[in-house]
Amino acid sequence: MKKFLLNTIIICIFLFFITCILTFATELTVKSQLKASNKVEYKVSDNKVQVPNSSERAIANYQFSKVFLVVRLIITFLIPILFIYLGAINLANSFKGNEFLRLIKLTSLYLFFDLFLSIPLSFFSSFYRLKLIGISNSTFSLWGENYIKSFALNFAITIVFVIIPYIIFIKFKRWYIVLGLLTVPVGFVGSILAPVFIDPLFNDFKPIQNVQVKQEILTLAKKANIGDVTILEVDKSKETKALNAYMSGIFNTKRIVIWDNTLNQLSSAEIQSVVAHEIGHYKLNHIPKSIALSGILSIILLGLTDLISKSIVMKVGFFRNNIGNYKSLATIPILILIFTILSTFSDPLTNWYSRKIEMDADKFAIELTHDNLTNAKLEARFMETNLSMNDVNPVYKFWVYDHPTPKERIEMSNNYKPWETGDYRFDKIINEK
């Protein structure tokens, strides 16, 4: 165990220096762009927004993102590989206590191993880079506090519930089907509880203070025939200069959350466009659909994980000699490795689906507000405030983007005018009681 911990610390330090060097090297290549303005100028011609050029600072941010993507992919694969290489299987066999106590020990070890090897990239990508490009308002202490909270929450939930999937793995021949199906009710319960118990751990939520804006939003919600959704603002300005809003929760905990930056900087029409987009997610049942599809994907990925892991344990000499029984604790590191690889390669599929529902929510918003021009202008505004590129490399979009690019959203908004042709997609959904 001492050797394992020492090697973990050495690898963490090594990753810190490598990530540091890559970050500073990238910083040198974009030094002049970092000093440039983030201003995005856009023109409106014939009631259409011309797709603006990306700001120099957005280009610098994009360069960092590409570097960090490569580093993130490498580290994602390295963590489970190194966990096995450094002796996790032998450690699992050597742990004292009953099976469940040994499982908790192994799980705890992996979670802390993952934490230490992830810290360097997390620091440089989510704190240093964002301060450098001028989009972050966060202090190091706030960033560190949220990072520790996230880990502690993940650790507590995992340790409490890890026994259930392990029992399913041991007891059921087709464990991957049972476990995959279980992710659906777990996803629903998580979506119900997260807005009430988890989100408030990181931010303060309160009803919208601006009476006029609140009334306009309620009128918009009434137009969409919803009167049971909570609309809140959250104090994101302490962390970032970016603008955003999101939909969370289901059933009686569903809510539209608008960042205070968004409320303070956007016009009334722009805020309504943002809210209409989130109402679209709600009316189109995107959260329940995503949970259900995630369950199907989980069954497929876990099934492939079982097939590949079983083959590795039976055919590779080292694993065959050190893992006496496939249905044992010593197999868990192999399962983690294979599932990590498969889930990473499934990211483009989930990103494609996410981009699709985001575009659907945009179209819903346009149909609800009858204001495609504001929707297009809004994307140009976000390019400035969020340091977004107007378009990106197709491979990068394939791997990373879970939202359409500003170029795609602006061009869609410019041309989506169903009131001119009567070709509405969501008219029945908007007007259903």
Mind sketching the topology for me?
Elements (H helix, E strand, L loop, with lengths): L1 H28 L1 H4 L9 E2 L2 E2 L6 H30 L2 H7 L4 H34 L7 H22 L1 H9 L3 H24 L6 E3 L3 H13 L6 E5 L10 E4 L6 E5 H6 L2 H16 L2 H30 L1 H6 L9 H14 L1 H23 L2 H14 L8 H7 L5 H10 L2 H4 L5 H5 L2
Parallel strand pairs: 4-6
Antiparallel strand pairs: 1-2, 3-4, 5-6
Helix pairs in contact: 1-3, 1-5, 3-5, 3-14, 5-6, 7-8, 8-12, 9-11, 11-15, 11-16, 12-14, 16-18
Task: Name the CATH homologous superfamily of one domain.
Answer: Metalloproteases ("zincins"), catalytic domain
Corresponding CATH architecture of one domain? 2-Layer Sandwich
Number of helices: 20
Distance between the termini: 61 Å
The rough form would be described as globular
Strand/helix succession: HHEEHHHHHHEHEEEHHHHHHHHHHH
Q: Which sequence of strands runs across the widest sheet? A: 3-4-6-5
CATH top level assignment of one domain = Alpha Beta
Under CATH, the topology of one domain can be stated as Zincin-like
Helix content: over 70%
Overview of this structure, please?
It is a single chain. With 433 residues, this protein is mainly α. Among the domains are: 1-32 and 54-161, no CATH class; 203-283 and 350-431, Metalloproteases ("zincins"), catalytic domain (Zincin-like, 2-Layer Sandwich). Helix content is 71%, strand content 5%. The protein has 20 helices and six strands. The strands form two sheets. The protein has a four-stranded mixed sheet with strand order 3-4-6-5. A two-stranded antiparallel sheet has the order 1-2. The longest helix has 34 residues, at 99-132. The chain is globular. The N and C termini lie far apart (61 Å).
